[in-house]
Prior knowledge:
Elements: H1 2-10, H2 16-46, H3 51-55, H4 57-77, H5 82-116, E1 124-127, E2 130-137, E3 141-145, E4 151-155, H6 156-161, E5 165-166, E6 174-183, H7 188-200, E7 205-206, E8 214-219, E9 223-232, H8 238-255
Antiparallel strand pairs: 1-2, 1-5, 2-3, 3-4, 6-9, 7-9, 8-9
Amino acid sequence: MEDAILDFLATFSLDIPTLIYLFTVILVAVVAVRVVALTMNILAARFKSQGNKLRMLIPMFKLLVYAGVIFLILTSVFDLGSAEILVFSGLFGAAVGLGLKDVFADMVTGIIIVFEKPYHIGDRVRVEGHYGEVKDMGFRATRILTPDDDLVSVPNLLMFNTPVASTNYGSPHMMVTIDIYTDFDCDRQAVLGVLHEAVVTSRFSTIGNGYPVITLVKDFPYYVRFRVRSYVWEMADEFVYETDITVRAWNELRRMGVRPPRLALPEGIGG
């Protein structure tokens, strides 16, 4: 085995023309990836209904380009025959076993995620306590931009082995759930009507076939929870939309005399 390794290393050859060639290959690959990413993002912004599907072409293109670059580098600096490929496979396996196991696992699961597409670039996802928009799907990690403008890198292996909730799954629109809590003594039907009206008159709403407005009510011992589920037109307006509905609904509810939940004190306390 040692002789095979030495023979393999003996095929290593690197000169100035090869260095220039490899530098050119890497430069072209980087430029190509950035140009394709920019083009796909521009097209996604223009054709919003297909935006997330177009963005998914970016990690697929990266995968092909990086695989091609690795192949060109290896074939340029090594004389890879069948025996050399066998030795290289053994060295690679040893490297994975000695310390690159997690890195290799992230890379393999990253490839699986790209082709299985449990979520898309541009989706709003929730995983391991993190919620935000998927900005990039790399070989080692998926990057999520949170509402607080934090860029969180989640290892692909964790994304693969942990339940991931996608709120829109490739759709440009997403459902938003808004809760309103009121005092127990209220006209429930009137409150539901106010919430429905707040949604249909919001400039951030999308309403139509496939995008229903659902209003729900549930009584608790000392308060009532009203819930409205509706779709926001632009995912980026998720929290602005929620604020718009909440503020306008409460303005009307207060005008009608509806109050927030009152503090329930034990008997004999507070008069």
